[in-house]
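testing teh design pipeline on a random one, pls ignore if ur not involved
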């Protein structure tokens, strides 16, 4: 059984952090504490290219089976605002870059802003299918916080090994790190870390 940590927007918005790569690495190191947890950084190609040290780190951690990077997109745009042809071109380019640079062929496409769930966006699913990608939107995600978030469910007595089995916890690398660390500690030790 594995709990997946879906880490969207890897290194986007990084100008607000003194050491954005250090923060991303810290979040990842917390996920490595448990063999029941797998870090799934969703890659935006144009953003990650600005951090060569992150590219090498992701490549190394993937080879050591501590990460399973997947695709978020070529750039951080709403796929629902792109033409079908432009969307296909961007998916192809992003997949090729990931394969050539990270040496991993993504099988899942985590759409920015959960694109694809709205009426009239069926062509987004079609583009994903034609590129042999499983499309994952924001529907039915498990957030860390909130009344029905993972942290509250654990505090209410739910067993994360049951309600999160083979599911994902959603976060962004810059937020929720301490909560994630507490959840991972609980998964491993069965006690809440204060």
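output:
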């Amino acid at each position: 059984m594995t709990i997946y940590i879906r880490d969207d927007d890897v290194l986007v918005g990084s100008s607000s952090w003194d050491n954005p790569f250090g923060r991303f690495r810290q979040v990842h190191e917390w996920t490595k504490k448990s063999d029941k947890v797998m870090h799934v950084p969703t890659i935006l190609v144009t953003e990650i290219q600005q951090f060569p040290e992150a590219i090498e780190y992701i490549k190394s951690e993937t080879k050591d089976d501590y990460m399973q990077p997947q695709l978020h997109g070529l750039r951080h745009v709403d796929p629902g605002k792109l033409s079908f042809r432009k969307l296909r071109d961007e998916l192809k380019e992003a997949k090729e870059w990931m394969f050539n640079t990270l040496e991993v062929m993504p099988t899942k496409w985590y759409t920015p802003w959960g694109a694809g769930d709205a009426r009239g966006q069926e062509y987004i699913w079609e583009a994903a299918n034609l590129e042999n990608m499983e499309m994952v939107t924001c529907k039915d995600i498990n957030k860390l916080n909130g009344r029905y978030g993972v942290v509250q469910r654990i505090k209410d007595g739910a067993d994360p090994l049951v309600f999160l089995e083979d599911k994902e916890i959603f976060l962004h690398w810059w937020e929720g790190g301490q909560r994630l660390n507490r959840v991972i500690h609980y998964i491993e030790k069965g006690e809440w870390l204060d």
